[in-house]
């Protein structure tokens, strides 16, 4: 069964030529907006995680490489799975001196609320600036697991429904949606068990309480090198340079592409000139050696989407995720 996350990315790339041509005058520098005071760069999560590292890396490079002529202090607004930070940023409507770092939760957290019939702030209430990278995800098992590859794991799930226990954080979050995508593609049912945090998931796997988990490969590197865990497959378009021996799910026969995007958004209603300025600035960022090193060190997939493309990607991903959430029973079908 073909999974549509891959189609989302193909469609977005298909409109690249039109979008670039439409915005080329601004990208060439024909903009009137230039920041003259510090730009608050808001991270919706606590320092130290993937989103925090992304925000610190981007902000530091923008300052050190003088891509922007002002400072970009990183402001942390964690809470509510991104809801606190999104509420803060939404209050700055029309103000181009505020930016936020984006990842899947800014789409998924509000989506679970709106699918239940309630209103909340969503990603659609902001100006999307860019998407700069994709953080890939892998299926991980204990090192001495009886499952030597993904096909064996799937075979066990087919032999007895919900016999294979997957662990992750929060039903409806990225972990559970990857598992749901794989289950849908393979035609099986897994038993997904939610934990409070990644540390609990790791402990459950090592303790033999679950059979598998989903995780970012770089985050699992200490366990992989220490031979306490193994990766079975990556949910990426192609193999990662840092893990050349790790097959993709596509190679194993399951057409699943699922990852976490890393991008930038701004409050609604900022001037078009500011959007063009930031598009150009983050395009320059993506071409720096420092950002390329960050991508390589973290085994991420680089990309560059302008405002139009980023908005389309996020909207399409939200539509796709809504279907998976319904499959998980989080929203009514």
Explained architecture:
Helices cover 41% and strands 19% of the residues. With 333 residues, it is an alpha/beta fold. The chain folds into two domains: 5-135 and 259-327, D-Maltodextrin-Binding Protein, domain 2 (3-Layer(aba) Sandwich); 138-234, D-Maltodextrin-Binding Protein, domain 2 (3-Layer(aba) Sandwich). The strands form two sheets. It has a six-stranded mixed beta sheet with strand order 2-1-3-10-4-11. Strands 7-6-8-5-9 form a five-stranded mixed beta sheet. Helix 5 crosses helix 12 (307-327). The radius of gyration is 20 Å and the shape is globular.
Architecture (CATH level 2) name of the largest domain: 3-Layer(aba) Sandwich
Rg on CA atoms, Å:
20 Å
Strand content: 15-25%
Report the order of strands and helices.
HHEHEHEHEEHEHEHEHEEHHEH
Count of helices?
Answer: 12
Shape: globular
**Overall average pLDDT:** 90
Helix content: 40-55%
What fold name goes in the CATH topology slot of the largest domain?
D-Maltodextrin-Binding Protein, domain 2
- Which class do the helix and strand fractions yield? alpha/beta
Major sheet size, sense and barrel closure: 6 strands, mixed
């Amino acid at each position: 069964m073909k999974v549509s996350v891959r189609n989302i990315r193909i469609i977005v790339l298909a409109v690249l030529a039109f979008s670039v041509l439409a915005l080329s005058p601004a990208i060439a520098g024909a903009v009137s907006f230039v920041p003259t005071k510090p730009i608050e760069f808001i991270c919706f999560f606590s320092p130290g995680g993937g989103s925090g590292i992304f925000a610190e890396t981007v902000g530091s490079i923008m300052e050190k490489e003088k891509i922007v002529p002002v400072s970009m202090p990183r402001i942390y607004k964690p809470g509510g799975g991104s809801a606190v930070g999104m509420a803060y940023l939404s209050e700055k409507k029309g103000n181009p001196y505020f930016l936020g770092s984006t990842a899947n939760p800014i789409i998924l957290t509000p989506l679970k609320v709106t699918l239940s019939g309630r209103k909340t702030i969503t990603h659609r209430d902001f100006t999307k600036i860019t998407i700069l990278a994709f953080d890939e995800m892998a299926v991980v098992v204990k090192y001495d697991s009886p499952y030597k590859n993904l096909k064996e794991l799937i075979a066990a799930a087919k032999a007895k429904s919900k016999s294979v226990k997957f662990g992750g954080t929060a039903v409806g979050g990225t972990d559970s949606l990857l598992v749901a995508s794989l289950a849908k593609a393979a035609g099986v049912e897994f038993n997904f068990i939610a934990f409070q945090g990644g540390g609990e998931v790791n402990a459950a796997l090592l303790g033999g309480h679950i059979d598998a988990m989903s995780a970012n490969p770089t985050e699992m590197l200490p366990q992989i090198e220490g031979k306490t865990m193994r990766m079975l497959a990556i949910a990426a378009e192609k193999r990662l340079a840092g893990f050349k021996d790790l097959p993709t799910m596509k190679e194993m026969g399951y057409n699943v592409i699922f990852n976490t995007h890393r991008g930038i958004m701004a409050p609604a209603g900022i001037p078009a000139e500011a959007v063009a300025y930031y598009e150009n600035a983050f395009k320059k960022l993506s071409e720096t050696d420092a950002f390329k090193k960050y991508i390589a060190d973290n085994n991420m997939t680089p990309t560059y989407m302008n405002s139009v493309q980023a908005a389309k990607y996020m909207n399409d991903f939200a539509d796709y995720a809504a279907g998976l959430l319904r499959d998980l029973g989080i929203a009514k079908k």
